[in-house]
Every structure is written in structure tokens, then in C-alpha cells.
Design brief:
The protein is an all-alpha fold. The chain is built from 2 helices and no strands. It is rod-shaped and about 95 Å long.
């Protein structure tokens, strides 16, 4: 049985195209939503922590 076989590397472009389309149709919006939510939480925490630092510096000032 010495038949012709489809080379594996020739299937790769089709698999990549199908994967890309699947990701764009199903995964893009949830990923953007979760990244936006995480960015909002991170910015809130950063502002809160830096605000605490400023308040602590004002409490250390000498008062006349």
C-alpha cells in the first residue's frame, strides 16, 4: 500500500484560519470585558494606595 498521503503541514493554514475565526466570533468580547474590569479594579486600588501614602505624609508634618 504505497498510496499518496496528505502532508500534515498543508493542513496548518486551514486550521489557523478556522481557529482565528472561532476566536474572533466567540472569545473577543468576553476577554475585552474581563480586561476592562481588571483595569478598573487596578486603577481604583492604585489611587487608593497612593492616597493613603499622601495622607500619611500630611500626618507626619510638623505643626506650629
Amino acid at each position: 500500500m504505497c498510496g499518496w498521503r496528505w502532508p500534515r503541514w498543508q493542513s496548518l493554514p486551514g486550521i489557523l484560519i478556522v481557529t482565528f475565526i472561532f476566536r474572533q466570533l466567540t472569545c473577543a468580547k468576553p476577554i475585552v470585558k474581563s480586561r476592562t474590569a481588571i483595569a478598573r479594579i487596578n486603577s481604583f486600588l492604585q489611587e487608593y494606595i497612593s492616597g493613603m501614602h499622601v495622607v500619611q505624609l500630611f500626618n507626619r508634618e510638623r505643626r506650629p
